[in-house]
Amino acid sequence: MPPRNIDVLPTNPVEDEIADEIEPVITEDTHPQKRPPMQIVWRNIVYMSLLHLGAIYGMFLLPWAQPLTWLWTLATYLMNALGITAGVHRLWAHRSYKAKLPLRILLAFWNSMAFQNDIIEWSRDHRAHHKYSETEADPHNAKRGFFFSHCGWLLVRKHPDVKEKGKQLDLSDLMEDPVCVVQRKIYVPSVIFMCFIFPTFVPWYFWGESAWNAFFVCGLFRYIIALNVTWFVNSWAHLYGNKPYDQNINPAENFFVTFSAVGEGYHNYHHVFPSDYSTSEYGWRFNLTTFFIDCMGVLGLAYDKKKMSHEAVFRRKQRTGDGSEGFGYVVKPNDEKKSD
Predict the structure, then answer these.
(1) What is the pTM of this model?
(2) CA 288/CA 303 separation, integer angstroms
(3) How far apart are CA 260 and CA 287, in angstroms?
(4) Which one in 71, 201, 274, 315 has a CA-CA gap of 20 to 30 Å to 133?
(5) Of 225, 219, 226, which Cα lies nearest the Cα of 203?
(6) In this prediction, what percent of the chain has a pLDDT beyond 70?
């Protein structure tokens, strides 16, 4: 079933290149300089280690938790995920669709549940990631290795280029959105409540789950799983997979990331066409986020959804793709003749 309420982006070959991002993409370091010595932030290492140990403990508590608690953990995982994918990523960082106030408020709360920095800071880092992809100004530059792009970038001081280029980005649209401004002001208490208290309270109060199980399973275990899945978009989907749209860039199509990150693993497509609200040419296929946005569109809460035309996508695949389709099937000449 095709998505509804969509603005199809330009099909002119020249416009294909200029309409796909808020700012022009820079793929090479403009001011090459020697990388400064890595400065480890030990506080972050201790903090992340403790959270992961708590999550591992929560995983071992799963057999002793009630079935309803398992379902609630999955529900909070999906809220957590959509707060990132439909919220701060596709709505605020890329402006690939617009949302009415009630939906923006809901997504802001879910974003606090994800506990991955406030909307403005997350969007700034992500816009830098796209504008300066795989350069020293990219906060999680995948050329520095899997571990660095996964979580290492959070355990060391930022490269000077990340700070310098990040300050130059236009964030006026975020600063003018009262939802973003208020969330930034109340971020710490909103995280404490949405990420830990709320997920713990519901199973304890409504079906008698122990507060201990609820905190470690629905709180820590769910949070760390969702956090690592988001990190896999920066690491795994930038290093492993096929490249149907542009074989000259790092981001790739990765099924595991697509499935676990509710639609964010069509990453080669996304970096070629960042303004497409679906981050994919396949609509709802393994893309719960697109399904959610389309449902919000039916309710009148999401609108002005941007979508690349099939013609523009086809032209780009022919020009720079690796000849594959989906998650790795390579189209052979005989297959093309059959499809005709």
Answers:
(1) 0.88
(2) 17
(3) 10
(4) 315
(5) 219
(6) 86
Helical segments of 186-254, H only: 187-191, 198-207, 211-213, 222-234, 236-239
pLDDT digits (tens, 9 = 90+) for 129-168: 999 999 999 999 999 999 999 999 999 999 999 999 999 9
> Which residue is associated with the tokens 């990420």?
195
Integer Cα distance of 253 and 250 in angstroms: 10
Q: What is the model's pLDDT at position 326?
A: 82
Range in 90-94, 119-123, 323-327 with the lowest mean pLDDT: 323-327
What is the residue type of 167? K
Domain map (residue ranges) of the chain: 1-20+242-340, 38-234
The residues that bridge with 324 in the sheet, in sequence order, are: 330
Strand 329-330, strand 324-325: pairing: antiparallel
Tokens of 314: 């086809």
Cβ(293)–Cβ(97) below 8 Å: yes
